[in-house]
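HUMAN: Spend a minute on the protein record below and explain its fold to me.
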Amino acid sequence: MARLTGLSMDLLSRIDAAGLEPFVENADPVEFEAGTFRRSLGLLYPGLLRWAKVRDLGSRQALDQVSGKLMDLGL
């Protein structure tokens, strides 16, 4: 067990010391969140939009409205 602990600590120390390049991507969080809803709901996506009374999830306001309605359901 002591050898595993030592190995783990050595590995974690090496990972901690590694110099990583910063991850910079010009991703729009609204687009990412809307895409996540589309991919995860599939055929149910249009029904979600109708239920939440939004046309699309292209704005922060629309995403907040859908999220709020889902949270009201306890989801």
Summary: The two ends are 42 Å apart (CA to CA). The chain is about 65% helix and 0% strand.
